[in-house]
């Protein structure tokens, strides 16, 4: 049976809004990660078949196929193509899936899966501004309205709906967020992330974790929606960052003398209710485990994106996963969520944590706009 192996994974530190990465052009940010990946794996870059890069706000400095531009900006061979994809927050996790599928199909042997987002330079919502200014109900047209009506469709409403459905209180969310910061601060202090990070612009560590935050500070914040439960403290941080993963076939491993670090066990992607928007990691996880013939108890490390605290809390309730194995070094509430870069960043974190702890199986998932989710299960080798 053909296998797809992960032979390299690297990321930048995740910078906070107006932080140390906020002045770095997103193309240069991604180029830095691609250069680091090629250097660390020792692969001849001309042997790479394709570069697949996730980016959500493909507007302004992140437009014009940033995958191709970043590769060229890194001084890498012109013969290697690049394509930029958008599956919302899961864009670079989908890049990993497309890369693995290309290798598993036998049509390509070495594929870079990457992601980038500079939310400081290209703010959330930039890509729809022009359409809104022209009075268009972007991105939802008449046919959408026929099906779903004119109700509000937003991640903030979806997060509140999840709280109602799963009976989550504001205090539940804040306790979870506090734990995320504590885990992340410990990981940074202990150097757990050092090997996976390629420092850039003088930034060596993730900037988001707040070791000094308290439940009292969180309780003092205003909710995003009047009468709601979600606050800035229980939401992912606006961030800048990039990650890159190299996927190789068995033939490429032999030809280039590479050492497989993990194999792709299975992949899943599903759609769920677009109004709730954030619930799809639950069915996507169930589908992936069925395909792999594994259980949630088999997973030694789990990375689920903390877009909002109710996402992992509801997922934990439904799957029965071990909270201690889930986001063991904190998640996006503490570390940040640079949209299109997060999928590759989470895979990098997952791989390194499996190696650090000696775990065997790892699972990655994240909610995505439109009510979608990807799940990737890997086995450390």
Automatic annotation (TrEMBL):
GO terms for molecular function: acetyl-CoA C-acetyltransferase activity. The active site is at 89 (acyl-thioester intermediate), 337 (proton acceptor), 367 (proton acceptor). It comes from the Bacteria. CDD domains: thiolase. Residues 259-380 form the Thiolase C-terminal domain. Pfam families: Thiolase_C (PF02803), Thiolase_N (PF00108). This is Acetyl-CoA C-acetyltransferase. It comes from Microbispora oryzae.
């Amino acid at each position: 049976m053909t296998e797809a192996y992960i032979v390299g994974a690297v990321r930048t530190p995740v910078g906070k809004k107006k932080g140390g990465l906020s002045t770095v052009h997103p193309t240069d940010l991604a180029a830095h990660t691609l250069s680091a990946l090629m250097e660390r794996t020792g692969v001849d870059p001309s042997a790479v078949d394709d570069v697949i890069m996730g980016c959500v706000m493909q507007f302004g400095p992140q437009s014009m196929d940033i995958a191709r531009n970043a590769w060229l900006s890194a001084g890498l061979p012109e013969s290697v193509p690049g394509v930029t994809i958008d599956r919302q927050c899961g864009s670079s996790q989908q890049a990993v899936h497309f890369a693995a599928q290309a290798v598993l199909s036998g049509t390509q042997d070495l594929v870079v899966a990457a992601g980038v987002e500079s939310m400081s330079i290209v703010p959330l919502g930039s890509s729809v501004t022009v359409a809104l200014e022209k009075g268009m109900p972007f991105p939802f047209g008449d046919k959408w309205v026929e099906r779903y009506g004119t109700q509000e469709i937003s991640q903030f409403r979806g997060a509140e709906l999840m709280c109602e459905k799963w009976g989550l209180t504001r205090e539940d969310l804040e306790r979870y967020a506090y734990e995320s910061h504590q885990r992340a601060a410990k990981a940074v202090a202990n150097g757990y992330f050092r090997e996976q990070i390629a420092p850039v612009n003088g930034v060596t560590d993730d900037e988001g974790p707040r070791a000094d935050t308290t439940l009292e500070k969180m309780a003092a914040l205003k909710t995003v929606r009047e009468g709601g439960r979600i606050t800035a403290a229980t939401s992912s941080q606006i961030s800048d960052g990039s990650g890159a993963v190299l996927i190789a076939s068995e033939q490429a491993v032999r030809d280039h003398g590479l050492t497989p670090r993990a194999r792709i066990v299975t992949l899943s992607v599903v759609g769920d209710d677009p109004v709730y928007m954030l619930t799809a990691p639950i069915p996507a996880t169930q589908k992936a485990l069925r395909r792999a013939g594994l259980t949630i108890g088999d997973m030694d490390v789990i990375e689920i994106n903390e877009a909002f605290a109710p996402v992992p809390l509801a997922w934990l309730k439904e799957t029965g996963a071990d909270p201690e194995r889930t986001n063991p070094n904190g998640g996006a509430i503490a570390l940040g969520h640079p949209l299109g870069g997060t999928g590759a960043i989470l895979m990098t974190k997952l791989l390194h944590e499996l190696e650090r702890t000696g775990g065997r199986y790892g699972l990655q998932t994240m909610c995505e706009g439109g009510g979608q989710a990807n799940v990737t299960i890997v086995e450390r080798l």
